[in-house]
Amino acid sequence: MNRDGGRAAGLVAAGILVSRLAGFVRTWFAARYLGAGGAQDAYTMALRVPNAMRNLLGEGTLSAAFVPVYSALLARQDERGARALANALLGVLLLASSVLTLLGIALAPLLTQVLAAGFDAERAALTTRLIRVLFPMAGLMVISGWCLGVQNAHRRFFLSYASAAMWSIAQIVLLAGWGARAASMAQLAWWLAWATLVGALLQVSVQLPEVWRLAGPVRPTLAGASGQVRTVLTNLVPVIGTLGVVQLSGFADSFIAAYLAEGSVSVLGFANQLMLLPVALFGIAVSASSLPELSRDRASLTEEAVRDAVRRRVADGWVRILFYIVPSAVVFVAFGDLVIGMLLRSGAFGLREQQLVHGTLAAYAVGLVAFSSNRLFATVFHAQQDYRSPLRFSMASVAVSIACAAGFAFAFRAHPMAVAGIALGAAAGAWVTFGSLRARLGRELGALLTPPARRAVWRVLGATVLATALGAALRPLSAAWHQWVAGPVVLGTFSAVYLLVSWWFGSGEAARWLRLPSRAARADA
Prior knowledge:
- The structure is a single chain.
- This protein is an all-alpha fold.
- Helices cover 83% and strands 0% of the residues.
- It has helices at residues 3-34, 38-57, 59-75, 79-106, 108-115, 121-134, 136-153, 158-162, 165-178, 185-215, 226-257, 264-300, 303-334, 336-344, 351-365, 368-383, 388-411, 419-445, 451-474, 483-505, 508-514, 520-523.
- Helix 5 (108-115) crosses helix 6, helix 11 runs antiparallel to helix 18 (419-445) and helix 13 runs antiparallel to helix 15 (351-365).
- The model has no long low-confidence stretch (mean pLDDT 84).
């Protein structure tokens, strides 16, 4: 990846890391005080509904439709038109999110019946109450997504992603201060829902000053820039469709988990959050930083130059993603129990929960490369304002995912580890999308990996094998150690060996981490 692209991806990753670290602190407190029981099931299920709206109308979805149009205006030096587009789109989003929020609150009992049909009466009643508190969060997150799009189009990446830490911090304050004071798990889940809503408000508030500075006064309106708004909304429909089918898969996973043993919804949620950390840090970081540049290239370069630029960005970004994702997947499978023990083992979250989350996380790890690569591949289509191709591919993959998840989970329904079958189904669906996107890009751009890039991938695989072997050799020695000692020793050794071997093989990415001279020229000679 070129220097500017690497710096932009690094800023996105840094912002995501801040928010994810806060998220893991929040998860630790939630695991400590709520465990993986009925109240956590209800909170996890209630949060899934507004989170789906957040994903459908905010953040990545809105950026995919908005950033290419907004960035093209900036590339043509039309700042007045860009400002008018931003304000007009904000007015539309405020109206739409307000209507959807009111509908969500009113339809909370129906949503619970549809999504949590497997819950008993007590968990279902609590889920309904929590949905009514949490649904306004969806509208706030849509506005946060608009703020993110404006900042990213102006090549401001850190705050837009780091601001999500405020969402977690509000929950951490609640759990740390009042987690032990609740009369019941249900009461604590109720308090936590209100803290979650406050966190969403804080997340928007910290971004508005920067957006004001970049795009001028924030004045939502339903008039002005109508042509560009229509273009964004037209683009938004297939993007929503693409993420809509992905969200359908997520809802289906929770629906299936609700019919398994109590706590399965929570186990699935914990494992999913851990799996998404490397996807967000590396897959989303590279993709998000690439989208504005790809969009500007499309607006300012010739067709042949665009093709070469896109192929180069895809190759550089993909190698960068694989450098981090391949060892992450191996760690989740081979050493995931240590990761979970360090992050979650406390209070109501015991050995049984640790083992269940590890098994589910290992199943997710089977598709980790696909989950992450798909983000980058889809970004190429979004930059070209081709939103229908990813939609078609996603529909096929979701069908595979749901079928596999239901088959695996219900076949072993009596076993506590049946929930891992749901994660395995999600991984299968991700590989279907991966194959389709890669084949399509290969036809349009040619070979996605140059010979040096292919050698870089082989070096990643070799370094991962050597690091895993040494980490596995330390496992018996660390069996008697506390999890907060064994985890850092084994995982620290794995990471150090991986970076050193990668550097010796010629990885420029490892050289940057170790601050050593690059051996890339010798490795590719």
